[in-house]
Amino acid sequence: MAKQFLSDIEIPFGFMPNVPTDPDHLVNKAYADLLGGASAAEFISNAANGSKTLFTDADFTSPGFNYETGAGQIAVYFDGVRQDSTDYTETSSTSITFNVAVEADIKVTIFVGATDSGFSTQALEITEYLGTSTAAQSTITAANLSPSGLSFVAGIGAVELYLDGVKQSSKDFTENGSNQLDLVSPIEAGLDIEVKVSKAIGLASNWKEISSAFTAVDQDRIFANTDGGSFTITLPASPSIGDTVKITDGTGNFATANLTIARNGSNIMGSALDLVLSADNDSKELVFFNITNGWRLV
Length: 298
Description:
single chain; mainly beta; Jelly Rolls; five-stranded mixed beta sheet; four-stranded antiparallel beta sheet; 25 strands; flat
């Protein structure tokens, strides 16, 4: 099958009508267009078989697909390419019908906004890991790929595997834990391996006020209120490169009641020490780099 290459995305020619080509609708290996608020939910389906047009809650890898029809709450992607709203019908609150059958092995991703206000500032991040196969290779791990740090959430369809540029069916491998792919059949030496891992990120998550012990997640933006006394905010466990947490003194009280940022097993600025904020009106943005350097202050 002939292929097109648009902004680093490989698209089978003719797999769907009205495939957008403008930059606002393409996911590249950095960030996609804006889609969804901080509370948007992501649903992924690998059920496309070349004849299927109707997708319901049962077709997605996680339960709970539900939205309000006609409220602009959903954003639909095929293998990372945003689909126009004219390409499908919001059939019911738990189903969607495409005008044309979705080609086999296309990953369908739908983001559902939690409120009628629709989408604001969530994006899809795709990280690419590259390597070369060895003779009779049957597993793909972080050790086989560059950059280091292969990590994914298993079982939600977030991983795509390409061999010599050809996308492999999800039936050709299994996700073992959070950083290994087990191949159904061993592969020969010298093949170009490409693993793409996607995740939803909040480019501008809503700020939240925190006044007691709290464990942050990637993209949290926190007003810390220590008027009631000192407490600890714990950084995410097992962070990936680019994970970000921003914390600011919401009440200008850190000098009186300190805030501790617990490292949760990762270094902060290369040191295995927690970070204590003790200056009024202080603000810190932490971005994770790697195991050695850990969280960096930017």
